[in-house]
């Protein structure tokens, strides 16, 4: 199943709306992400997951329950054409099957699941493979948003029977009641919430077969375009990742991608990134993995990542993460 490597600025914009009252606060929240406040005016601009996660990490340092709060603001309309296609579906179950059909358009960090176990239907978020420190935050944001989407699809509150979370009980557990007014279980084996399975048969108040077919066709086209752009970006990332010790320059990379440097530069710009940003992102990912290995000295890691000297690597890592490599390793 394809997941999004790119996403919109929607979550970033919500974070700034929630936490940034002054320009300097916005700059602090965007620090290290490569996103400028002016970028938020671009309607169709895409950013990488790494950029979004950096802003989320900055914001989470200011508010621990941020995931829940953002989830309660991510309405069904936040999911664009797919959200409107779900709203016009015939039944609640049809809407959910549609949402699960296009994970790239959902922009989720998880593999979403809908399973029926006896008399209960479970909506779950599994297989998180991103920044471990942000897993709880992303679980809370994802499931809180999906609960809100359920209510908006139905035009009324979906009665929840249970909610389970793999992480431990947080200090702000009382805030869970706003999204999950049901028995809660932490340190569970999954991230999911349950409701009576009979609700899957409920007719949706905004069901419209003509509008639904139109939205479906638009979703298919958008998904094809989006997945093609993701596949192209993944090829670029693979070319760079395979040669981190001696990365190809922009012209050599363009040749490998069978296009001109100008075309490569334009495509990357349309995807919300550029050559150096991709190279830094891949180097940062590889550096974190190597720093987790005690048998790799800093000088060897620097050489592996194509730095001529250890000092250059230390400076770059400090810029990427905000801490020195030795402190990150510790």
UniProtKB/TrEMBL annotation:
InterPro entries in the record: AraC-type_N, Homeodomain-like_sf, HTH_AraC
All residue ranges annotated as the HTH araC/xylS-type domain in the record: 234-330
Coiled coil: none
Keyword Isomerase applies: no
Keywords from the UniProt entry: DNA-binding, Transcription, Transcription regulation
Gene3D superfamilies named among the record's database cross-references: Homeodomain-like
Protein name: AraC family transcriptional regulator
Keyword DNA-binding attributed: yes
């Amino acid at each position: 199943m394809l997941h999004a490597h790119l996403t919109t600025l929607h979550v970033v914009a919500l974070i700034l709306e929630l936490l940034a009252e002054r320009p300097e606060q916005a700059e602090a929240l965007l620090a290290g992400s490569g996103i400028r406040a002016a970028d938020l005016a671009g309607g169709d601009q895409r950013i990488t997951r790494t950029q979004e996660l950096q802003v989320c990490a900055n914001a989470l340092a200011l508010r621990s329950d941020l995931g829940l709060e953002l989830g309660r603001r991510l309405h069904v309309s936040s999911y664009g054409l797919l959200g409107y296609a779900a709203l016009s579906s015939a039944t609640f179950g049809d809407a959910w099957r549609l949402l699960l059909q296009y994970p790239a358009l959902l922009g989720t960090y998880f593999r979403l699941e809908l399973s029926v176990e006896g008399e209960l239907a479970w909506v779950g978020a599994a297989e998180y493979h991103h920044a471990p420190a942000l897993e709880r935050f992303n679980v809370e944001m994802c499931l809180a948003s999906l609960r809100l989407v359920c209510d908006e699809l139905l035009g009324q509150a979906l009665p929840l029977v249970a909610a389970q979370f793999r992480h431990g009980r947080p200090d702000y557990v009382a805030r869970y009641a706003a999204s999950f007014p049901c028995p809660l279980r932490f340190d569970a084996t999954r991230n999911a919430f349950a409701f009576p399975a009979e609700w899957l048969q409920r007719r949706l108040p905004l069901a419209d077969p003509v509008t639904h077919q139109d939205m479906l066709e638009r979703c298919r086209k958008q998904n094809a375009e989006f997945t093609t752009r993701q596949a192209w970006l993944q090829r670029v990332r693979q070319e760079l990742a395979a040669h981190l010790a001696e990365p190809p320059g922009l012209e050599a990379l363009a040749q490998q991608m069978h296009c001109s440097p100008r075309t490569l530069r334009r495509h990357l710009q349309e995807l919300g990134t550029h050559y150096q940003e991709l190279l830094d992102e891949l180097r940062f990912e590889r550096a974190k993995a190597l720093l987790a290995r005690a048998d790799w000295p800093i000088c060897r890691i620097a050489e592996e990542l194509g730095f001529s000297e250890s000092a250059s690597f230390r400076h770059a890592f400090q810029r990427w993460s905000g801490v020195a490599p030795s402190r990150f390793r510790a």
